[in-house]
Amino acid sequence: MRRPATQPSPRRTTTAMTGTILRALFLVLQMFLVFNTSAESRHSEEKCPTKKEIPSCKSILTSTDKEYTYQVLPSFYAYLNMDCEHGWYHQNGTFIVDSTVHGSGEKLGCVVHMTPQNLTVSTCMNLQWQIHCEQIQYNCTVNYIVLQQETSVNVPPEDKQGSPHWGIALIVLGLVIVGLIVGGSIWFWCQNSGNRTRYNVAGQSNQA
Description:
The protein is an alpha+beta fold. The chain has helices at 10-45, 77-80, 165-207; strands at residues 51-56, 68-71, 85-90, 95-98, 111-114, 118-121, 127-133, 138-148. It has a domain at 51-153: Immunoglobulins (Immunoglobulin-like), CATH 2.60.40.
């Protein structure tokens, strides 16, 4: 006699379906991670133009009131709509202004007008523009170099790199003087202590 076909138990069917669903979800998650990693790598591998040469101050002069406009490179316009931090700095790293739409509002006195795409200042000088996109791991610094600057450029105090050599020299000199005073005092005290000891020993010998 033929045995009746055994039906799979509901528990085994549920376990098999759960395993299939989990494997499908795992594959989808792997595909998402691979796509996201490749997208981030493409962003991070994009070229960062580190220098923008400006022929002369006249080429960026925008008015008769000695106002000069520096423009963000068009290749960065797409990043300006992202959640990125960007702003203008002096060549020595001194902060000038936050160029984001919802920036802090802090700026130096040389700033005349600012938009995310450009900066207008009252002085023709070398500047620096920085952008940091943490979400896509993209960072770039562009140095704006004016090849022919005006001879009488009023550089803001914040742009001058103060030399700390005199301050360091004074500190070292003060430490040397203090060391000499302390050393001399110790030597003088030791000399007096030795003289007093010899005097006491000599006095005891005479009394004996």
